[in-house]
């Protein structure tokens, strides 16, 4: 995949307003992506999670490889009037409270088009209303919010500066776009593979969509899942040093065999003439959807993009998040490479385990005699 493919799709999806339970405009863009590609099939569960499937008729019957990402970003929603020109909006997802309370918000009417001119409100305080956490938002005189309105921080939607891409919702719209690029590249190659992309709703309030998907019986239990997430660089990753082969998160370690296979394939790709830079990290700054899948018994691995200004936390005020274009291009290249491997990620995991076993045995054969010869009484 070239960089322009990612940027083209990013410009279509990443500026779209979204928040937990308010992903409808992003979902519509994904539906348009599918409609333009006849070999893609779209499934929905009863809560609106999306599953995009590409199946080449001559693909092997190895386990389907399914990337996952989420379609929301922290925001505000479910407004309740408090008085003239003042509303309580529920806090939907994590944010630095001190910075949020000094911020403006863009308020959207879901009955209108995504490109609407939003209503600008100002947060006047953090507040609990009927045991629900949120913010008091002041709106301009003569304006009002409908019951379905929702808000995002008043930040630039998307802009590129050199090799960095800034956006108010990189987490996880950049991951979702990377997943779409993964499918697009395999379709372009007419690759003989079985792959998919799971796009979930309301991750930021506690994995609501993924919990539903993993517990409802809707997902293929024979598939291998690879979570794609933008993860805070403060956990030790370096922007521009390549995608992260993620071992786990704050809550758990993911499938060690799949992680070993992913690292092996990344290492092999790094040694080719096209080369790949990558990082191998735990990324324990938070918990991601891979923990939900792993905990529900699905075979799960993860890749991540190092993220600056995680959840819009800037140095002194809320700011756009940012990713490095080299990282996202590398992530898609690696994921495509994994999909094209005979036997897939599972077989790569077996190879990684065999390599370790052979290496340990060779060391044992080399050093065991000397250990015995130098034994002292």
Q: Would you mind describing this structure in some detail?
A:
This protein has helices at residues 3-13, 24-35, 97-100, 170-188, 208-215, 256-270, 289-295, 325-339, 344-373; strands at residues 40-44, 50-55, 65-70, 75-83, 86-92, 104-108, 119-129, 132-138, 150-153, 158-161, 164-167, 194-200, 224-232, 244-246, 279-281, 299-307, 321-324. The chain has 377 residues and is of the alpha+beta class. The protein folds into two domains: 3-73 and 157-350, Aminopeptidase (3-Layer(aba) Sandwich); 76-153. α6 links the parallel β14 (244-246) and β15 (279-281). α1 (3-13) crosses α4 (170-188), α4 (170-188) packs across α8 (325-339) and α6 crosses α9 (344-373).
Helix-and-strand structural type: alpha+beta
Kindly give the count of domains: 2
Rg of Cα set = 23 Å
**DSSP helix fraction:** 25-40%
Fold-level CATH name of the largest domain: Aminopeptidase
Strands, count: 17
The run of helices and strands is HHEEEEEHEEEEEEHEHEEHEHEEHH
For the record, the CATH architecture of the largest domain stands as 3-Layer(aba) Sandwich
Based on CA inertia axes, which overall geometry fits? globular
Percent of residues in beta strands: 25-35%
Reading off the top of the CATH hierarchy, the class of the largest domain is best stated as Alpha Beta
Provide the CATH superfamily of the largest domain: Zn peptidases
Beginning-to-end CA distance, first to last residue? 63 Å
């Amino acid at each position: 995949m070239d960089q322009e493919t990612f940027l083209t799709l990013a410009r279509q999806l990443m500026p779209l307003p979204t928040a937990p339970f308010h992903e409808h405009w992003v979902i519509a863009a994904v539906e348009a992506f599918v409609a333009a590609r006849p070999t893609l099939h779209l499934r929905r569960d009863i809560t609106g999670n999306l599953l995009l499937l590409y199946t080449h008729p001559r693909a092997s019957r190895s386990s389907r490889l399914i990337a996952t990402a989420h379609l929301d970003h922290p925001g505000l929603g479910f407004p309740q009037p408090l008085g003239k020109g003042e509303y309580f909006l529920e806090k939907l997802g994590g944010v630095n409270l001190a910075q949020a309370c000094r911020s403006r918000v863009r308020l959207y009417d879901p009955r209108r088009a995504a490109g609407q001119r939003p209503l600008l409100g100002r947060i006047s305080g953090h507040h609990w209303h009927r045991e629900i956490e949120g913010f008091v938002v002041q709106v301009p005189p003569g304006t009002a919010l409908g019951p379905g309105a929702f808000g995002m921080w008043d930040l630039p939607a998307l802009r590129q500066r050199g090799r960095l891409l800034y956006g108010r919702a990189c987490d996880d719209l950049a991951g979702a776009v990377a997943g779409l690029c993964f499918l697009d590249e395999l379709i372009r190659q007419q690759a003989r593979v079985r792959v998919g992309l799971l796009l979930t709703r309301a991750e930021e309030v506690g994995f609501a969509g993924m919990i539903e998907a993993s517990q409802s019986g809707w997902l293929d239990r024979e598939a291998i899942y690879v979570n794609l997430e933008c993860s805070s660089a403060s956990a030790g990753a370096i922007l521009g040093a390549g995608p992260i082969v993620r071992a786990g998160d704050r809550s758990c370690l993911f499938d060690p065999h799949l992680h070993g296979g992913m690292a092996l394939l990344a290492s092999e790709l790094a040694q080719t003439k096209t080369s790949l830079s990558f990082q191998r990290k735990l990324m324990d700054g938070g918990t991601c959807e891979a923990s939900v899948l792993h905990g529900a018994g699905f075979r799960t691995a993860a890749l991540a993009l190092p993220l600056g200004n995680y959840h819009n936390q800037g140095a002194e005020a809320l700011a756009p998040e940012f990713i490095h274009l080299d990282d996202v291009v590398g992530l898609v290249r690696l994921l495509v490479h994994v999909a094209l491997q005979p036997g897939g990620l599972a077989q790569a995991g077996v190879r990684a385990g065999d390599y370790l076993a052979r290496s340990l045995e060779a060391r044992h054969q080399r050093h065991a005699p000397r250990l015995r010869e130098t034994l002292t009484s």
